[in-house]
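Predicting holo structure, 2-acetamido-2-deoxy-beta-D-glucopyranose bound.
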Amino acid sequence: MRSAPLLLALALALLAVAGPSPAMARRHKGEEEKACDKGWEGGGECSGSRFCCNDTITDYFKVYQFEDLFAKRNDPTAHAAGFWDYKAFITAAALFEPRGFGTTGGKEVGMREVAAFLGHVGAKTSCGYGVATGGPLAWGLCYNHEMSPSQSYCDNSNELYPCVEGVEYYGRGALPVYWNYNYGIIGEGIKQDLLNHPELLEQNATLAFEAAIWRWMTPMKRRQPSAHDVFVGNWKPTKNDTLSKRYPGFGATMNILYGDLSCGQGSIDSMNVIVSHYRHYLDLMGVGSENAGDNLDCADQLPFNPSSKSLDS
Ligand SMILES: *[C@@H]1O[C@H](CO)[C@@H](O)[C@H](O)[C@H]1NC(C)=O
Ligand SMILES: *[C@@H]1O[C@H](CO)[C@@H](O)[C@H](O)[C@H]1NC(C)=O
Ligand SMILES: *[C@@H]1O[C@H](CO)[C@@H](O)[C@H](O)[C@H]1NC(C)=O
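Done. Tokens:
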């Protein structure tokens, strides 16, 4: 058993030399499975992942679709024109595909997950308003940082991730990150020193997407699910969840990421705008907003994490 990883590495090395072949490689659990010989991004990244041979995001989400979703992001009036692109998203996403991001449950679930994740991103980075050309939903990825921070977002009571002098922790990135402690946690997650260098999230679009996908994939508290888990069906609600009206679906992703800032308050704008982006992206991707899934909103859900310290400001 101890030599299994070595054998696998050897098999992959041989594949790389010999090119695609129907070679069999022995996997961890001992079952025979076809070695993945399709163009999984990052090549060896996929070895040992149970998502290995499934469709990757580039199989079903192409550059023209990214351009459709974020049609106005390079408009001269957009605030981050020239910053965001497809390649940055795909490069970041490839790091999480072996863990199931966009690769769980087949192509349709994958497309829905990409629409859901990007729906959050679009809503949180939009500068669209009622009369904007192209409609309010065409302006996702308009920003890469908060324009006029209303406060310093430094919590000096946090000993684990103390504020660094002269560094500011206003909102930055694809799912904007606020506060020293959030930069600290997320920086550890993506192995970047964001506590000292939060500006990386407004200087490097790949890192901005990486931070956002890390948040999507990672439970914020022990014994809680991630947004990914509640969306793709990995999560089974407990009795307490059911009593709190938390069910699997898009609604619960908002609950995890924003808690009572968006959820449990009826049909409020800060919730509806995220749902609208998700549904719009499903339509643009050809999945159709009628396939948005059950439990689309969180109007009646009690928050997983009652506020003030939720990741959004
Ligand atoms: C891979 O995709 C198939 C359908 O294409 C799906 O049934 C299966 O659950 C997927 N595997 C994983 C690990 O999600
Ligand atoms: C962005 O960060 C990634 C990951 O550290 C790095 O590989 C890439 O070169 C950076 N891009 C730019 C434009 O600095
Ligand atoms: C059940 O949910 C309520 C409200 O969300 C929460 O205050 C309580 O701690 C939860 N109980 C358990 C055992 O998780």
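The longest strand covers residues 24-26.
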